[in-house]
Every structure is written in C-alpha cells, then in structure tokens.
Amino acid sequence: MADMSPEIARAISRIPSGCSILTVRTDADRTGMLASWVQQVAFEPPAVCVAVKSGRPILNLIDEAGGFTLNLLGENPGPMFRHFGKGFAPGEAAFSGLAATDVAFGVAIPDRIAALSCKLMERRTIGDHDVLFGEVVEALVDEAPPAPYVHLRKSGANY
Questions:
Q1: 16-68: per-residue pLDDT in tens?
Q2: Diameter of the chain measured on Cα atoms
C-alpha cells in the first residue's frame, strides 16, 4: 500500500475515472490491458495521457511501436473486464475470441464506445507509474454510444 495518510487515500478515491483497454501492436506482438488513469491533455494537437505501472511489459512494446490505442468502455464493461482483467504474458494471444481490428498504433476491440489511436509524444516516469502522452491520429466512434463507464475507487492508495 502506498505511504499516504488515510485521509489522503480517501480524498483521492473520490476522483472519478473511467476504464479503457490500452492496446499496442508491433510486428511481433499484439496485446492489451485495463487502464483506468486516462485523461485528455491538449486540444492542439489533440492529445491524451495514460498512466501504466512501471515495469509492465506493454511499455516496451509501446516504445517499439511508437504509439498505442485507447479503447474507451461504455457503462456495461463486464465482458471486456473479464477478458482483459487477468492480464496477458508477453506473446500471449490477448485478442483470442474477440472481433478485434488493427488500427494505426494498436487494436480496436468490440464493446467499446470509441477508440483513440495515438502516436507516442513522450513517456515520463512519475513515482511508480509511467505516463504516456499521445497525439490522437485516428479515431473510431460509435454513432450512438451508451454512457461511458465511470467509477470511484475504494482507496486512492491502490487500484
């Protein structure tokens, strides 16, 4: 558990977040993971950021690919939580059984309300996470999407 007071942990847990599936595609591998720390960071160029726990194998693949894709989930994320929640080892078939589509810097998955394919602009290590900043270069959007999935964590000190 993070070294923070219970009051700080409780206060931080009140920051709402969504949940996305972060994907990447290289010549040798395609993978994805759950990501809940995602935010728009610029209008011009359109840019977003996502935080990933340092040391995750997906980070090296994102560096190799030069980008990533964020699949934004709707209010019923259960199927994608079950599929991606267990995590995938390097080289494991992360999209087996899914009607996934390759996009510029990753993979668009089913049951998403939008997909943002991003060219990696910068990667910074902040504490125990790496923050990836990406310019959105391609997007897929459902015509009439459901509401986005939003949740509050029980504690701001852990997932």
A1: 998 999 999 999 999 999 999 999 999 999 999 999 999 999 999 999 999 99
A2: 46
Find out whether 114 and 140 touch, Cβ atoms under 8 Å: yes
Q: How far apart are CA 117 and CA 138, in angstroms?
A: 5
**152 vs 25, 76, 79, 159, CA distance in Å?**
30, 15, 20, 10
CA 152 to chain centre: 17
pLDDT tens-digit profile of 104-124? 999 999 989 999 999 999 999
Distance (Å, whole) CA 143 – CA 67:
25
> Rounded CA gap, 154 and 140, in Å?
32
**Whole-prediction pTM value?**
0.92
